[in-house]
Amino acid sequence: MSDIGSAVTPGAIGRFAFGAATLAAAVLGFAVDARWFAASGAFGGIWWAWDLLGQNVIGPAGRLFTAAITGTSDIEDAPDLTVDDTIRLLEDHLSADGVPRHVQIQSALRLAEIYRLNRKDEAKAAEVIARVKAKWPDAPEWALFERERDAAK
Asked: pLDDT tens digit string along 30-51?
């Protein structure tokens, strides 16, 4: 059984109808009368507007309306990152130039937790914190970090 039913949408029907009308009017312009070229241009303009409005206005508005009614969303799921991917991402945040202070501090805190909990490497976790703390020793995030660390001991 073919899966043609999933390809037939109102947008596809409109594109087909206006495309066929554009081509038919162009052929009639060659065969019958040059005024059909004006009709061909008009159908082509409507075809273009149909695609533009369907893809950029009506489609997104319909998805938003459907999501509001059903309580769902068509937002894609986050990519499946492994622990190694996460470590590389956070290390890139720490080593890159121009990364904001709060991003580097949060990256250091997350990376230290990964090293401490997943890799069981307390020395590497302490090194990450020390490296970023040397850049911003008076950041308010460190006070909360040290309180939580002292409470865990």
From this structure: 888 888 889 888 888 888 988 8
| DSSP secondary structure of 23-36 | HHHHHHHHHT-TTH
Q: Is the pTM of this model over 0.85?
A: no
Q: How far apart are CA 153 and CA 93, in angstroms?
A: 29
Residue that is last in its domain, among 70, 103, 120: 70
Determine the Cα–Cα distance for residues 110 and 112; give it in Å rounded to an integer: 5
The residue with tokens 């499946």 is 80
75 in any annotated domain? no
Count the residues in the chain.
153
pLDDT digits (tens, 9 = 90+) for 87-134: 998 999 888 888 888 888 889 999 999 998 888 998 998 899 899 888
Nearest to 129, CA basis, from 152, 100, 106, 99: 106
Sign of CA dihedral 101, 102, 105, 107: negative
SS3 assignment, position 82: coil
